[in-house]
Amino acid sequence: MPKLLIYGASGYTGLIAAHHASSLGLSFILGGRSGSTKVAALAQELSVEYRLFDVMQPGPIDTAFEGISVLLNCAGPFNLTAEPLMAACIRNGVHYLDIAAELDSYLFAEKLDLEARKAGVMLMPGCGGSVVMLGCLAGKAIENVKDPVGIDISLCVSGPMSRGSAISASRNMSSEVMQRENGELVTGEPGAIIQLDFDNGAGSVDNYPLTLPDLITIWKATKVRNIRTFVHVAGGVFPTGHLDALPDGPTQEEREAAPYHAAVKVTAQDGTVTAAVLHTVNGYTFTGLASTEAARKVLVGVFEPGFQTPAVVFGNDFVQTIGQSQVKIL
Question: Where is the Saccharopine dehydrogenase NADP binding domain (predicted)?
């Protein structure tokens, strides 16, 4: 039976994914860094096998990948874990999935695309989180748009951040904002604030430009030549003070009280604008559920070799199979 390896399973989102994999009855094992006692404890709780290895040691990785057909990498920071694990997946014929929010993982996948295709291996960074939310929303919005030339898309985030997310975000923060212009990634305007209505009762709100991996994935899926990505923060999401002292992440109650939304405007060649919104569960809940559902699909043979996006491989409706998510064309 094809088997899934969840690496970084003791992290905050990895834990959600592992529990969901168990509830689905998937054939899976847990993975973590050498010396991790949390992974061993979780494996005992879920009655599954576990394997420990470090990403910079090819030999132990190859041994750990024996009998594995799909890897779900939940271990950040992804600028350190994605490339060696992608290379190991290509080397061992294992499909690669991750939950990265940083650009690095997607740039690595672009670089390794041809090698992965030759090996018959799929590389799908961002199989959960904003890449599914925004990619599927953009895909639905342009389905009936003739000659789309521009996409402005934004994620409305709310609720507390996990410790891992806060630390990764602080390391990757930059004053430089990127956008897709005439098909190329270029430096954008940091102060280019736009107004969008998320259809959540708050009316039109400010959205700030932010470099999101969707600049790569939406471009890959749609080939719309001009794409800008934004974020609206509902409340004081980003923590202050000593990030290492933060709790692992929000409680289930905090997640349930903080749903996410997304909004998109697609401009056609003739100037017509199509707007759509997404209403969904909290981002951490969504990522844990969507990444596991993506892995389940790949386990039963739903994949395409090379660098791929969830919207392309699973379809634009994939987002609406996760946690009662709803896309609405306005």
Answer: 5-124
